[in-house]
Amino acid sequence: MSVNSKLYEGKAKILYATDDPEILLADFKDDATAFNAQKRGSIENKGMINCSISSQLFQQLAMQGIKTHFIDSPAPNLMRVKAVKIIPLEVVVRNIAAGSLCQQTGLALGTVLSQPLVEFYYKDDSLGDPLLTSDRLFLLELATPEQVAQITHLALKINEFLKQFWEKCQITLVDFKLEFGVDSQQQVLLADEISPDTCRLWDIAETDTNRRVMDKDRFRRDLGNVENAYQEVLQRVLKVVESYKAE
Fold first, then answer.
1. pLDDT tens, 198-224?
2. Are residues 48 and 106 in the same domain?
């Protein structure tokens, strides 16, 4: 597979064209951003760690019947993916109150929600990725009603699997962000990544509200030991995946 021109560079990845127009190469970067890129930095080995975690989780989700853009990972920080047109929505699934949900509703941090909450945000940095109502989503024609229904169903199905998977890793899945795209056959596929950059993850064995954090909140909140937390997540993921293979 030959790599051609750079198609796009985002905050976390660079996408390259290949000799097959249906396949792209995603290069996961070590760059770290927070607060809509107002805070910038770097996390050592983040690209390799997030690519490895995402690769494992995409493969596990495929076994659950979830179609994703993942093809394979030719190097620790590289992922071959199906070319998709990204639907400009950030889909957030929440199991426990944290982050903006607490800030905007007054719910106490750590409040367990009676059922998972699925939220849609407009994927537009210039607007600050605002939370959307259904009417605004359709007004802006960001997705069809059928796509929104399908994405909501998939998000909840992904949540059910990931909650169980992370629990086997001795990690609580607080909330997470998903992105979806449409391929050349008009199929909706799970895209982007699933990693400590896009999930809020708490160590089940840790009660201290700072020490339990195993995700990008360590970078956002200047808690330190960011790479160590990411590495620990990767090691736990690999251990659980190996246990699945042994069954």
1. 999 999 999 999 999 999 999 999 999
2. no
CA distances 84 to 121, 183, 187, Å, are 19, 4, 9
Q: How far apart are CA 209 and CA 189, in angstroms?
A: 35
Pair 106, 124 in one domain:
yes
The DSSP annotation for 10-40 comes to -SSEEEEEESSTTEEEEEE-SEEEETTTTEE
Same domain, 52 and 110: no
For residue 205, the domain's CATH number is 3.30.470.20
> CA separation (Å) from 244 to 22, 60, 129, 247?
31, 10, 37, 5
pTM of the entire predicted model: 0.94
Residue 16: beta bridge partners?
A: 6, 25
CA angle 242, 191, 181 (to 5 degrees): 155
Supply φ then ψ for residue 136, to 5 degrees: -65, -40
Q: Is residue 101 part of a domain?
A: yes
> Given this model, what pLDDT does residue 188 score?
98
pLDDT tens for residues 82-97? 999 999 999 999 999 9
User: Which residues are CB-neighbours of 115 under 8 A, at least 6 positions away?
Assistant: none
| Tokens read off for 189 | 């596929």
Domain count, the chain: 2
Residue 78 lies in a domain: yes
> What is the span of the domain harbouring residue 30?
6-82
Tokens of 116: 């998972």
Residue 186 C-alpha from the chain's centroid: 22
